[in-house]
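Recall from the previous chapter that SMILES is a line notation for molecules. Here it describes flavin mononucleotide.
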Amino acid sequence: MDLMELLLNRRSIRKYTGERISEKNLEKILQAGLASASGRNRKPWELVVVQNREMLEKLSHCRTGAAKMLEKAGCAILVFADMAKTDVWTEDCSIVMSNMHLMAASLGLGSCWIQGRLREAENGQTADAYCRDLLQVPDGYALEAILSVGVPLEHPEPHRAEELAAEKVHYETWTTQ
Ligand SMILES: Cc1cc2nc3c(=O)[nH]c(=O)nc-3n(C[C@H](O)[C@H](O)[C@H](O)COP(=O)(O)O)c2cc1C
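With both inputs in hand, we obtain:
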């Protein structure tokens, strides 16, 4: 599959069989994240992989409604940032998320971005505090997002190149066509 095909095929998948992700595939997904570009090459990220079913169930409450899919995921990969390393940690960690999401798609696995930053857990804590407490993350680190990964139970249609919003691209100045 060439890169454009992969980009069009990538969808957010929220229904999984509950099977574990093979070590080989997990390794590739993590490598894709670790290979990411970062501002001034600071690489502020730390990744926490959760495969334990009980922990995945607990993590599914880290958001109000938006993290339910973790109950049946094969694993969750939480992306934290050392905020002292750089002021562009959100951008850096977003690239890690995106690269892992794409690698999962290229391996035929389903995955979904679960927003962590600026969001609330079901118990009223911030999603960040909820996950840091649960996973014993040291002070100074912030949660960017969580990637749920699983063997897919749904296969939504790929995006179609013809349907992409070409009008969002402006050439030379905003108003010229
Ligand atoms: C920054 C960001 C935050 C997102 N947060 C969530 C989330 O918390 N829960 C969820 O189910 N999907 C989340 N998504 C997935 C989007 O809903 C999804 O990408 C969008 O609906 C487009 O669908 P597609 O990914 O299949 O193209 C998020 C995606 C991004 C990029």
